[in-house]
Amino acid sequence: MTHADNHQKVQTFEVALHRLEQILEKINAGDVPLAEAIALYEEADALMALCNKQLAEAEQKIEVLMRHRDGSLAIGNDGRPLTQPMPPPSPGF
Q1: Residue 57 confidence (pLDDT) above 90
Q2: What global pTM score does this model have?
Q3: Closest Cα partner for 44 from 67, 72, 17, 64?
Q4: How many domains does the chain have?
């Protein structure tokens, strides 16, 4: 399997992140031929795009549980905790 094919089969954030770590270690070792370094860079770029996409999707799914002033959960008519959208991230994150 080529490096380009490898990122196509990555399905989870954790697997992609682990592969990115492997690529970084290999490139930092300094003994990678130029052609392989370029292929690894391309694979890493695709993996970063995949991770960013998965993080954005996860962020959209996260909800903050609403609480009363006393700290207890606010419960809706259906018996489930009430939620609100997650606030936007602070600048710099």
Answers
A1: no
A2: 0.59
A3: 17
A4: 1
